[in-house]
């Protein structure tokens, strides 16, 4: 069964011409075998999720290009976990854009709301690595993902899907167009909970006013340890201990929960007055690009499945570790091999 019905049209929005190209992909990949003891009802949860933001090519020092962008990486991994994702973005009318659509089809990820933009190129980012193996990014903008479009008919379709979650980050919402589209989307589905994956990038999204506005519309926030320090500095919150930071952030923005990723040390989660740390899994890192996005998809899966904080955090650590052990932001992986990891 297709997630959405096909529709073809050309439209003009905000002074830009966008040719709407849609590719309908069947949803519902095979469920994995039940996990080891400690998890409950794995694979019995199916959620409708809307994700908005960048899709781009990661350009590595070797000049190799791999498909990425945090919201898309999240989307592809959520689909792998059995959920239906409506992904909202844009690609250019160029060879890279055509290849994006081909790769989305290969990954069984719908391009129903990915617009083909004629006057901006498909996004790219130059990736380099520090001595610690952590990736650094140089973005090239404006890019097609800065100019998505959702018209009234699109919003009606999305409303009828009754999504449980909307996922977004910071990078794309620097674009006034993306920010406006995201606001319209959230207004159309007020019942949906909002997962904000902070993902700060150098020089592109450091405006405290933007971060404040995004946090004010958020249900659950995910960020890494360095981002938590920056946000603590921006808003006068206690940076340490992490439990105090999480509680202060939750109180300021009335969040249901907060997750802080700690690299090799795993993650910390805070929700409903509870604070837990989940240890990481020791693996040989091939590249960390996309590991945090896979972590986010797995964490949301765990929360949607009704798992405890510790169960959801542990599963997310496992998935993130396996992705970090492989090349590319969206490598092949299975739940079974994630569950075989040992501390």
Distance between the termini: 39 Å
Strand proportion, as a percent range, falls in 15-25%
The number of helical segments is 10
Number of strands: 15
Biggest sheet character:
11 strands, mixed
Radius of gyration: 19 Å
Uncertain regions: pLDDT < 50 for 5+ in a row? 1-38
Blueprint (SSEs and pairs):
Layout: E1 9-13, E2 16-20, E3 48-52, E4 56-59, E5 65-68, H1 70-80, E6 84-92, H2 95-106, E7 113-117, E8 123-129, E9 135-140, H3 152-161, E10 165-169, H4 176-188, E11 193-197, H5 208-216, E12 220-224, H6 225-235, H7 242-253, E13 257-261, E14 267-271, E15 274-278, H8 291-304, H9 309-324, H10 335-339
Parallel strand pairs: 3-6, 3-10, 4-8, 6-7, 10-11, 11-12, 12-13
Antiparallel strand pairs: 1-2, 2-7, 4-5, 8-9, 13-14, 14-15
Would you give an account of this structure?
The protein is α/β, with parallel strands linked by helices. Helices cover about 35% and strands about 25% of the residues. It contains ten helices and 15 strands. An eleven-stranded mixed sheet has the order 1-2-7-6-3-10-11-12-13-14-15, sandwiched between helices. Strands 5-4-8-9 form a four-stranded mixed sheet. α2 (about 95-105) links the parallel β6 and β7 (about 115). α1 crosses α8. The longest helix is centred in the last third of the chain and has 16 residues, at about 310-325. The termini are far apart.
Which key phrases capture this entry?
alpha/beta; four-stranded mixed β-sheet; globular; 33% helix; 15 strands; disordered N terminus; eleven-stranded mixed β-sheet; 343 residues
